[in-house]
Amino acid sequence: MASLPSLPDECFNNVLFFLDYKTLYKCLFVNRYYCKFSIPLIWKDPFIPPIPNKYSLINTLISCLNEEEISSLKSCEINFNNNYNNNQIPLFEYGNFIRKIDHDYCVNHINSWLKSSNKNKNQDFKVRKLTSVIYNMIMRKGSNLQEFVLFINSRNYYIDLPKFSIFTIYKPGITNLTSLSIEVYFDLVDDDIRYQNTIEFLCNVSKFCNCIINCEFWISNLSNALTKPFLDIIKLQPLERILIDTYTDNYVEKENVEKVIHALEFRSKTLKELLFRNLDFQVIDLSFISKLECLENLEFVQCRGFVLQSLFRKKFHFKELKLWHDEDYYYDLLKDFGIKLSNIMEVMINSFCSNSLIKLSLNIITLETIKAVKECCPNINSLHIKIFSDQSLDLIIPIICQFPLLKILKIESYDGVVNIVNLVEILADHLIFVERLILDFNIDLPSFKYFTINCKANLKKWIIYIDTCPSLRKDYLLLVNDYQKVHHSLKILGINKFYNRNFDWTNDELEVVDCLKDQGVDIVSSDELDIKYLSP
Asked: Could you give the CA distance from residue 202 to residue 197 in angstroms, rounded to a whole number?
């Protein structure tokens, strides 16, 4: 019997790309061909959170060092004897495969390795030196670095980046960097020696790169030391996606935020996604958004300070929109501030929504805002809402259920305020078109039974939130089983769990689980309910 022809290398690589790490590691032992394609994928992003007492990553990286790099470490009195085999010869040029570096994770791996084999004397100095040498090796091996993550959460314990020249002396270095994420949780100062290399990196990265398309700024205090580098990145890089998360506690920070916002106009021809977190827009004119000609996805999450005077009637053609107002305190939507906020959200919906919108997230849910959604964006197929009040639910939910193209629906509720029984029953009576549903709140058994009996929608993917007595879990499964026997539509049932991913089914529960599997239903654990999980 003739053997099947091999896939072209490019096709085979694309197949392996979608495998998880556990499966990729198994591929290493199939044959040389599988190994050749698996190794680059495994080493594409090696700096994941370190596992205690696992030092193979640093051992392997050290085995790739040349004599000069090894010699530079001897003066630091680094002990290689315990975890490292001096005669180990690397099978591959591992450094060449690295495409992403998370500096904080890299330092944590090195710190753990040093603590296991060295005395704590001069620990920080050793960490800095070994970090610098490993970076040098990665760049020397010709790594085509594409993603870089910089996380600075401590003024006293942060390990600085190596000198910036390491990133530029070897080719390609960082010249092909496409994604940059910066998280800083204290006020950086220009002349502080503890992170002078980091400041130099931020000041120069925009000069040596020309293809950064994704940038995330997570900054607790937008100081002057950070503002100019950010402005240069925004002005000089062809950014398609920007996330800005920062607080404004004083005049200088507010002024710097305004500078960054105004600089976004430089990306009018490239920017497709713009995401804001935790910003106060009280003194920011939103009219800059109208100048971003290519913008498709706009998000305001935990933002505040919107005023009607800064809004406008221009129509946009976004595909995705998220208006998630600050939730630091509960909004009574029937009182003065709540009514004002509802009015602002209604104006924003009228301005930002159009026939082109297909995905909407909204946490100010009133009859007026939902009517505005129905009027302005009739073509949405994905809706994520959070309900803060029982007011007009008997009118709001039916309107939502009448959206003819709505296929994905996620509903959250404010704890202790919303009558869940009422919400679930109204939803069961009116849901028709939705195929993928997340109910991100606890549902009592009688309400769940009512839903499974009365729901007319043929759900394909369904995630439920069960935080109740384990003895009732079988009853919930039986109700899902009854639903499936009627609808024959369900493919995936997701159950939210907090403590572990294993369900530890009882024998009685296994009988129901097997029955669901026989009907084509896959049961998965979902620790974090995410609307993206329900995407096709």
From this structure: 9
Report how far residue 106's alpha carbon sits from residue 48's, in angstroms, rounded to the nearest whole number.
8
Element (H, E) at 273: strand 273-277
Tokens of 514: 């097997």
Count of C-beta atoms within a 10 Å radius of residue 143 = 25
pTM of the full predicted structure? 0.88
User: What is the C-alpha separation between 192 and 265, in angstroms, rounded?
Assistant: 32
Of 85-99, 171-185, 480-494, 511-525, which range is least confident? 85-99
Q: How far apart are CA 128 and CA 147, in angstroms?
A: 21
Quote the tokens at residue 232: 């240069």
What pLDDT is recorded for position 53? Answer: 63
* pLDDT tens per residue across span 46-82: 998 877 667 788 988 998 999 899 888 888 877 765 5
| Burial class, 114, CB count within 10 angstroms (exposed 0-12 / middle 13-18 / buried 19+) | buried
Q: Which of 333, 355, 353 is nearest to 343 (CA)?
A: 333
Residue-wise pLDDT tens digits, 517-536: 999 999 887 654 454 545 55
| pLDDT of the residue at 259 | 93
Residues 434 and 443: their CA atoms lie apart, in Å, by 19
> What are the φ/ψ torsions at residue 286 (nearest 5 degrees)?
-75, 0
Mutual angle of helices 67-74 and 123-140, in 10-degree steps: 170
Q: Render pLDDT for 488-512 as a digit per residue (tens, 0 to 9).
A: 999 999 887 654 456 678 899 899 9
**Given CA atoms 200, 202, 206, 211 in this order, what sign does their dihedral have?**
positive
Place of tokens 């007319």: 456
- Closest to 58 measured CA to CA, from 95, 92, 100: 95
Rounded to whole angstroms, the Cα distance separating 147 from 476 reads 44
Residue 71: Cβ within 10 Å count: 10
Q: Are 372 and 401 in contact (CB under 8 A)?
A: no
Sorting pLDDT into bands at 50, 70 and 90, what band is 212? very high
Spell out the domain ranges in the chain: 7-43, 53-205, 458-535
**What is the helix (H) or strand (E) element at residue 325, kind and residue range?**
strand 320-325
State residue 386 phi and psi, 5-degree precision: -125, 125
Helices (H), 353-444: 367-376, 393-401, 420-430
Of 219, 278, 222, which is closest to residue 250 (Cα–Cα)? Answer: 222
Residues β-bridged to residue 38: none
Confidence class for position 3, pLDDT limits 50, 70, 90:
very low
- Are residues 354 and 377 in contact, defined by beta-carbon separation less than 8 angstroms? yes
Distant-in-sequence contacts of 102-107, Cβ < 8 A, 24+ apart: 102/45, 102/47, 102/48, 102/149, 102/151, 103/148, 103/149, 103/150, 103/151, 103/161, 104/149, 104/150, 104/151, 104/153, 105/47, 105/48, 105/49, 105/50, 105/149, 106/47, 106/131, 106/134, 107/131, 107/159
The structure tokens 């996604």 sit at: 273
The kind and range of the H/E element at 74 are: helix 67-74
